[in-house]
Structure formats: C-alpha cells, structure tokens
Amino acid sequence: MMLALVMAQDGTGIHPHEGETLDDRINAAKVGDRRALARLLSSIENGEIRFFDSLNESPDWSILALTGPPGVGKSCLLDRLLHEWVDHGLRIAVLAVDPSSPRSGGALLGDRVRMSVVDDEAKKNSVYVRSVATRKTSGSVPLVVRDMACCLLEVGWDKVVIETVGAGQSEVRCAAVADRIVLVEGPARGDGVQAEKAGLLELADAVIVNKSDLDGAQRHANELRESLHLGSDEAPEVLLVSALHGTGVAEASSMLLSLKQSVRAGRARWRERLLSHHERLLLEHPEFDSILSKIEEGLMSFEDAYNQLRNQNE
Amino acid sequence: MDQPLRIVIAKPGLDGHDRGAKVVARALRDAGHEVIYTGLRRTPEQIIETVRDEDAILLGLSSLSGAHGHLFPRICETLREHNMGDVIVFGGGIIPEDDRSPLFEAGVRAIFGPGTTSEEMVEFIATAVQRDDAGVGHGAGWYWNPSA
C-alpha cells in the first residue's frame, strides 16, 4: 500500500511536544512505541495530519469492517477472533467505533470492556485496540477511520479490523472504509421477509450469525442462506458461531482470513466512498459550526448555507 | 470547535461497585468529552496500558474498597515510569479526609466524594487541562479543593 503524508495547517493538539516532529512520531510508532502510535492516530483524528492511500490491489484484505445491529455480539466475537488470529502469528489493530452524542458531542466508548485479549500477557503485544467516536459524522463509520487504519498498516500492523457502531439495515457506509465487510447477525431477528430486504446484507462479503446457542439462530442462518442464494451465484458464506462458548469460532477465523471480495459490492463501495468524502469536506469547512448556527437562527437560508460550504471546498 | 478530551474512567483493584464510575462517565460524556470506561477489577498496569493505547489525557480512578492508599499512588508512579507524566489523574469514591493528602502528594489532582456535582468535576477538568503543572509527572503541587 502506498501512502503519502500531508501536514494540515497548524494543528492545535492537546499534547504539545517540544521538538517532536511528525517523522519522529512515525518512526517511534514503527519500532513499537504505543504512546507515539496513539498520538499519531489522535493527530489524524483531529485533522492535524492526513494519510492518503491508494487502492489495496492485493487479493488479501488489509482492512476488514465488522458490522451489524446493536447487541448481536460484535465486540465479543471480535475478541474471540483476535485470540485466534494472534495464535496464527498475526499482529492486529482494532478501531472500535462508538457513536458521539449529537447533542453534547461527547461519547462513551465501551467496546474495550469486552476485549479480554488486551489483558492476555502472551498476546497483548500483538493487539492494539483504539476506541473511536463518530464525532460529527453521520453513519456507522467516519471516513477518518480509514486514514487511521492506513496509518496502522504503515507502521507495521498486519491487519486492521474496524468495528462499526451498531448498524441498521440501510447503513452501508462501512463499505467506504474497508476492503471486506462482515455482517454479524443474531438469532430471532425477524421472520424470513427481513432477510429479503435490501441493504447491508447485499454488500456483505460474509455473514456470521452469532449466539448459535440460542433458539432461532439456525433458522435465521438458513433464511439468510436461502435469501442470498436467490440473488446471486456468488453468495457470501453464512456461518453460525457462539462467541460466548467459542463454538464455530476457529472455522470462522480461518474463513475470514482468506475471505475474497464479493464482486457485487464494487460499485456500491465507490459510491459510499464518494459520499463519505463529500460529507467530510463539508464537515471540515472552517465555518461549518458558524454556518450551522446561522441557519438555526434564521440568519441564512439553507440553500445559501449549503452553497457556501460547498464552494469553499472546490 | 475544540476537540473533545479523551478521558479514561477506571476501576482499579478488587472492587465490584461501579455505579459511581458509570455516573461519572455519563456526566463527562454529557459535558462533551470522549470517555473510555475500563470495566471492573483492573490492575494498575492494565489501566496504564488503556490510557496509553487510547491516548487519554485524563485518568479518573474510582475506588470504594479502601485500597485507594495503595492503588492510586502506585498508578501515579507507574505513569511516571512509563514516561506518561503529562496525564492528569483524579479520583473518587469513598476516600476519608485523612487519606487524601498522601494521594495529593502522589500527584492525584482532585478527590471527589459522594455529593460532588458533575458541574464541579467538569469545572475541575477544564481548569486542570489549562494548567501546565497538572500532569502526574509534576508530583505534589496544585490540587483541586473539593466542595464535597
């Protein structure tokens, strides 16, 4: 993966460090300085620096998105997968996304609580977990997460897994940030018609039905398989696992490592990336907040506001 | 707009009561900060690794077990050993008045007991991040005078 690094205009980070250049920080992160890495990621998140990457041309994935509705066990499953992947000798970084409050802008980032792998003395050096808030962006993953993922790859992590915010049926923005999308489902998620509905399911490269120990999981998996096979010859695999008991996790972890990109998602992926990029440009406009206030107070028409935000970025 | 502050709220030691920690985490969220909650029964090393990996600038410790006198200074010391002296440490829970000055000596910048308002905690945080001597690396020195 080719990367270029650009300094934005004078960033005002909350950790001013005298004499520390960006190169120092990157080099420190490369030799395993976790603090330097964490700060580098903050600089990207805060818009002080930006990573640009070119397309991943390799047949293997570097960035995988784990998505699905709230409460299906994404974090718990990811913890199990991390244990397996580290046993395979991989070094994996996780960007766990949780929502920011649209009112206060704050966030409670709780995915880390379920990551037992970071407490495992034998494995913790092969795993890096970073919680990320969505901040101002809409959708289940801010585009800046892709920059953060590319940075992690650049400093030597083998793969990056992005755990999205609990996502609804039409939430396909994760296609913009990842090479592969894995949809996690739970049992008893509605009748067979739910599986026929359009949306996220159509973009998934694999589907994992978690909580296989509960009633309805097998039936839901069957319905999903049936629905996916109706639509295409190249249906993604549907696996049943129990993250709680570990059943099926070993199979899922090796299936996911060799996961190929489904051909169905190509155009949609680019579409989501363009949309994310557009949103990001609007949000990064220096006058965004003041323009928003002007609309709110009736001092500016919506159309003028949008045009002003858009034109500055052309 | 200012970037939100990243704050770790941690439960060190063998203490299973986290209602207070969750209320604090929620209040700081509502004040616009990004709060990472560690969950129960963390060792000082696990807490410091979380602060490091999450690039938090503040660390809030909650203890109701009576072990604060051992755990809080140990965490402050470990932060300094790991070259993380700019992290600002504050604490809360059931911490008797007589136990507080050794904690301030160790570099804890505020102790909040029952009855503290969330406004006061938010005010402490806003004040502490403006100061250049609030990091745990500065050792004993300035600390917040709590109202409760």
Distance between the termini of chain A: 28 Å
Radius of gyration of chain B: 13 Å
Strand arrangement in the largest pleated sheet of chain A: 6-4-7-3-8-9-10
Number of strands of chain B: 5
For this structure, what is the CATH homologous superfamily of the largest domain in chain A?
P-loop containing nucleotide triphosphate hydrolases
Give Rg of chain A in angstroms.
20 Å
Number of strands of chain A: 10
What count of domains describes the coordinates of chain B?
1
Largest sheet of chain A: 7 strands, parallel
In terms of DSSP E residues, the strand content of chain A is 15-25%
Quick check: average pLDDT of chain B? 91
Strand order in the sheet with the most strands of chain B = 2-1-3-4-5
The stretches of 5 or more residues of chain A where confidence is low (pLDDT under 50) are 1-16
Looking at this structure, what is the CATH superfamily of chain B?
Answer: Cobalamin-binding domain
Based on Cα principal axes, name the global outline of chain A.
globular
**What is the helical fraction of chain A, as a range of percent?**
25-40%
Most extensive chain-chain interface: A-B, 31 and 32 residues
Order of helices and strands of chain A: EHHEEHEEEHEEHHEHEHHHH
Number of helical segments with 4 or more residues of chain A: 11
